[in-house]
Design brief:
There is one protein chain. It contains 12 helices and 10 strands. By secondary structure, the protein is an alpha+beta fold. The chain has 2 domains: about 70 residues, Arc Repressor Mutant, subunit A; about 150 residues, no CATH class. A two-stranded antiparallel ribbon has the order 1-2. The N and C termini lie far apart (about 55 Å).
Length: about 250
């Protein structure tokens, strides 16, 4: 790889407005230039120039839908790089005491959020830990793979691997660890991570929060996921900072 190209990609990500726009797309959504201008706190004209550079650099992809053009991350690899940078930034941040206590949005993000197209936060980590503890999955460095126990373990969650259309997609790793920037442990990424996230959303166990990466765990989701992973593992999800009112109500209701 040409070092100049590496430096070019780093410079694209390193501009604050572009960084903000890239992070806004980390949940896998497709957004217009106008929406991303707001995320980057720049004018629409400035945003358009930034977005053109990101598309040219291979970090974003543009899709035309009717009269509108939507921008999204070009690949899961881009999302992985952004998550890694987020982790490094958190590790190297100066130890400055915050005068303001983090609000409900921060607590919701730590509880459950989307990381591109898979589940992150305490819920994502707990799911990964349960799959590892049950011997359904093995992480080996930056790689991961399923064992012969995976089918039975995931079937108890209502996921049939043999019937999954995601399993036929060989362009992405089927299973890999993704370091969670808020929990500093691994959650599940790759095709399996997508499969679990889609299943939880389609089953009504998780709900997307409007304009946010945070995912709300519904009462049905509490029952299903707690029943699958067990009470002890569920404590990994519920422990931590106080939950926002709606999510807290859902957890107590079950």
């Amino acid at each position: 790889m040409n070092t100049n190209q590496i430096a070019h990609i780093a410079s694209l990500v390193g501009e604050p407005a572009r960084t903000a726009m890239l992070m806004e797309l980390l949940d896998g959504r497709s957004l217009t230039a106008h929406e991303l201008a707001g995320a980057g706190n720049v004018s629409p004209q400035t945003a358009s120039r930034h977005l053109a550079l990101l598309v040219e650099g291979g970090l974003l992809r543009v899709e035309q839908r009717g009269r509108h053009r939507y921008h999204r991350l070009a690949s899961p690899e881009v999302a992985r790089v952004l998550e890694g940078i987020t982790q490094l930034a958190a590790q190297n941040a100066p130890a400055v005491r915050r005068a303001v206590v983090p609000g409900p949005k921060d607590a919701a993000m730590r509880l459950a959020r989307s990381c591109y197209d898979h589940i992150a936060g305490r819920l994502g980590v707990a799911i990964a830990q349960h799959l590892l503890a049950d011997g359904a999955m093995v992480f080996d460095g930056e790689a991961g793979h399923l064992t012969d126990k995976a089918g039975a373990v995931l079937a108890r969650l209502g996921i049939e691997l043999s019937a999954s259309p995601v399993a036929t997609n060989t362009r992405r790793p089927y299973c890999r660890p993704c370091l969670d920037w808020s929990e500093r442990r691994f959650h599940v990424a790759g095709q399996l991570g997508t499969l679990i996230c889609v299943h939880c959303l389609d089953s009504g166990w998780l709900m997307r929060r409007q304009g946010m990466r945070a995912l709300e765990i519904t009462p049905r989701g509490v029952m299903a996921l707690r029943g699958w992973m067990g009470q002890e593992s569920w404590r990994q999800v519920t422990e931590g900072d106080a939950l926002p009112a709606r999510a807290g109500t859902a957890l107590r209701a079950a």
